[in-house]
């Protein structure tokens, strides 16, 4: 500590001796000199991508951290990692001390110490030194290894109330399957009471409940998550969740209880409720292990087995597609409390279940609530339709007052019919929630194991007697994955702000444990969205672990012959029109393109290593489907704008989009194989890439017109983007594209597949003016058109049609341009994790002000251009570098001229090369 600090400490001791200051103030003042010296800090430490994670799936975890500093141009010079069995980091507890390592690397450093054990807690701290000779030490973090082997579960068994006969198990049904079950199976609840006689120092619970579960201890939920665990390909594996229950136990009798829902593990075939498909992996089941460690060092293991009690659940129906019913007459409210008498309950039966893996994505939670903005009553007040003002994925939460036997039924919907009733015709019908009162009372209730996409809800009141039912309050509770929001966009253009929010709501509504197509009629993981919308998602949300899970879902859904189906996890084979809805290269290629994009974005080679076998098998599969190196199967440019109702590509032959994506796959696979040191594979991919190049141009190029295929926006943009156009005619083909756009009065025609590539090619060739012209209007199908029609989330069709989904994010590619074009932030070629990036804002004359922020793996990137005030604000994270590109002129950076070697001037622009820090740039 410096001399000033020593003097303050001495003075503080004198003050305390005199009894003038209370201890709390003493502690506060003592910290002052330390804060003043904290130039460098370890702002965030991640273990396997999470802070303080419970349940990691490896014994060689990867560590990453972010740094902060109040100085400029700060770079890490060295690091030191310590891992210990205790938070004290005592010498005898140390498992790894890396010692000081001279390196800038702060991402994905693998553990290299004494072997770790499963089901054990460990502690880590990071020390760093920077190029300013400052040092910093992180706060201590804890991580807990998962149960990685079957034997780690000890005597825990899967338990159930009923077991589905093997003849009815149907993990991958055809959509045309006529299989119907002749029995309706009841959902179960479970409970187990235990005595706690000693003080608990640690309690860790490992819980798997299929399809979904809610866990209670002494009548109280152990967390606020919903739809736990995330859904998977259940014939391959299921997730379990790890909890720290140390503070939840009481001395004496305690009761552990669980409710189960079907989720995607089992779709109940109940007549009169919507059922998209007939998947049946089995009936709901539970597996649980709790390890209680007492202060005297002894341990107790509580496991699920036949000694648990089970009963028919008050949830009488639960379906991802049909809704949920609750009958409070079946069990009293206190059924999960220790004082409840369960002697009449039956014993649970033990059964088999899937392999288990710790859930390492963030849980789904209620993330926002919407009160009604209006309502309409009918039928003498027995039917009330509420408008919540926002179309979102969610459930209703209600407080209501009724009498024994009264029924309240709720129909959610995206749209209304002409007479003001909820319209579920095109979003899955019938779907509803229902509650039956046990007694005369006021209750708060929400469905647990299902959700829907809706803006409106019709509440039907069905009293059992003569007294009315009262709805005291109702809300739309928006549910989504609780991963952190990482970015933002705001501009002086009201329409673009509204479009960004429109797309953002579609992303949020389709981001659960799977990226879904829609939050109502399907809820399936259609794969083309992942690589086409991935960059837009990444600019706004921390999607690293969600994308890793998506790729894992693809690996587990890949067929024996190498096909990556269009949906993952694959729960159904849509057998309409042959394999068109299963074998589309533009969808299956997410297995390669997403892995590459995620690696570039997050700097984690595991995206490539973990998926390399899947990627090579898929390339081989596409090779077997190609005829003379041309692919023709699939949906093509899905939902493009043509003369017919949108659906399968109308303006662009599937051969162009399928073969172009095949070529792009090979191009990326050459890069990946080279990066991973697989030279023979890289040569193979390069040779095949050239063969596809030649075949494509021979088949589709029309040299007289410098055009491909029909000359549609997609047919021209995709070859340009992926590199299929010969260098000598690239400019001519690009001019053909811009002429085509202008001749069509800058109207959109590209669909789900082609639209992103159209934007990327125009942006790369400095025609942001055309992007602006195509999207800054509301008089024809497009984003503004949907807003004018009243959409509050991006719709499935450019025209916002009422007969399709009104909450899809597959066409939201303009969001990427908001961040990379208007905001100007792009990663340099060859960089990963935004270590080196550029900010080059476009459309400066049309858009005066634009503010973007984004948390890269190194930390916060912020850029605010306020041309109305004549300045720019910029924040660059520690360990990163930025090239800021501005219009020609002379600029002051934080009031000073930059050194000559940090400025590059051309006729039209100035490049400012900046290290980390906060900057104000004025002209």
What is the multimeric organization of the chains shown?
Answer: single chain
Largest sheet: 11 strands, mixed
- Fraction in helix: 10-25%
State mean pLDDT (0 to 100 scale).
94
Number of strands: 49
Query: What portion of residues belong to β-strands?
Result: 25-35%
- Sum up the overall morphology in one term: globular
Query: What is the C-alpha radius of gyration, as a whole number of Å?
Result: 30 Å
User: Distance N terminus to C terminus?
Assistant: 42 Å
**Contiguous runs where pLDDT drops below 50 for at least 5 residues:** 1-37
**Structural class estimated from helices and strands:** alpha+beta
Q: Specify the number of helices.
A: 19
Secondary-structure topology with pairs:
Elements: H1 3-17, H2 23-30, H3 32-37, E1 40-47, E2 54-56, E3 62-69, E4 76-84, E5 94-97, E6 101-102, E7 109-110, E8 121-130, E9 135-137, E10 141-145, E11 158-160, E12 188-196, E13 200-210, E14 212-217, E15 220-221, E16 225-226, E17 238-244, E18 252-261, E19 285-294, E20 299-303, E21 309-312, E22 315-319, E23 323-327, E24 346-347, E25 349-351, E26 356-358, E27 364-370, E28 374-378, E29 383-402, E30 407-413, E31 415-416, E32 422-423, E33 432-436, E34 441-445, E35 452-462, E36 470-481, E37 487-491, H4 494-509, H5 528-532, H6 534-538, H7 544-557, H8 585-588, H9 590-602, H10 606-609, H11 612-625, H12 654-675, H13 679-700, E38 701-702, E39 707-708, H14 713-722, H15 730-743, H16 754-764, H17 768-775, H18 783-788, H19 814-822, E40 825-827, E41 836-839, E42 849-856, E43 859-866, E44 871-876, E45 881-887, E46 892-893, E47 903-905, E48 909-914, E49 917-922
Parallel strand pairs: 2-10, 17-26, 23-33, 41-45
Antiparallel strand pairs: 1-3, 3-7, 4-5, 4-6, 4-8, 8-9, 8-10, 11-19, 11-25, 12-18, 12-21, 13-17, 13-19, 14-15, 14-18, 16-27, 19-20, 21-24, 22-23, 27-36, 28-29, 29-34, 29-35, 29-36, 30-33, 30-35, 31-32, 37-42, 38-39, 40-41, 42-43, 43-44, 44-49, 45-48, 46-49, 47-48
Helix pairs in contact: 1-2, 7-9, 11-12, 12-13, 12-14, 14-15, 14-16
